[in-house]
Amino acid sequence: MKAVVFHDIGDIRLDSVADPGIQEPMDAIVRITASAICGTDLHMIRGTMAGMKPGTILGHEGVGIVEEVGPGVRNLKPGDRVVIPSTISCGYCSYCRAGYTAQCDTANPHGNLAGTAFFGGPEMTGPFDGLQAEYARIPFAPHNLIKLPQDISDEQAILLSDIFPTGYFGADMAEITPGDTVAVFGCGPVGQFAITSAWMKGAHRVFAVDCLPDRLGMARAQGAECIDFARENPIEVIRDLTGGIGVDRVIDAVGVDAVAPGEGNPAEVEQVAPKTKPQGDNWHPGNAPGQAISWCVDAVCKAGTLSVIGVYPQTVQSFPLGMAMMKNLTLKMGNCNHRTYIPLLIDAVRSGECDPLMVLTKVEAMNDVIEAYKAFDTRQPGWMKVELLPKAA
Prior knowledge:
six-stranded parallel beta sheet, single chain, 2 domains
């Protein structure tokens, strides 16, 4: 089969690899009908998340058809159409039963203290081959594969695999209640869904902070009050618009990949391609990665809540702890418990409460994946979220 394979930092290729097979009783093999490119994939390719094992298939978002099930799989059969949660969990440990599926005690083969297991990640996350492929092996399939109703399209479902649940997780951790004011820092795909989720939870006002016109335009179309930090100080603007108080809740949807002002022009950032090493996102907060998180702490009101869903690897050691303590802030952060939120969001889409398709801006064939990665990495206009269609689909 064809798959997107990591070879080295900055070196990914569309390779022919062996088809996956059943390895454990609760495995299933899924024929992938839709995958996607995510900003988290760039962390591995850039080396900001260390420890990628050469030969690992990339990608952690997937929709497909069950082709084969192991003898321990009793709730699925070949032909079932499913969405695959990005993080992997067993469904029976105490953390899974409490809804903290990203902290599953069982899924990561390195042990219960090794951290979140997910598809297409570094050695410390498994590693598990990812979903940018024609077929994928899904461990703990009875728990990790969620059947899709016929009225949910592949295009909608691929957004339910990771980025919509992650945005909703950010809003949930932020403890948004009706009437709250909310600021979302970073208006990429996850940031857009954080805005959507803030409205779903009853926010009164949502401020969106970014510098790219297409991202701010999409946020504005959702009703957010947009702040271009390349043209104005976001903290001064937020305080001015909230009577000097700040917002009740802040969501950091930026993560570690950031570059100083003037270094993030899309035309100047190196692109993902064989034998090249990309150098940054198009977030320009300066003093990266500390500026974005410092702005978040500055923007929230006293006794407010800060929710962090942007990816920060274990090597990041800095945080404005003193400033947060002096404001009596509540801090929440972590990897999304995808399996917990996906059924809820399937219902929200089916009811018409929200339509995730607003974020999907490109659909590309797997054969064009390297060029798609280049455009996505450099944040070219119109490349907000990219769905990939494997040849097998």
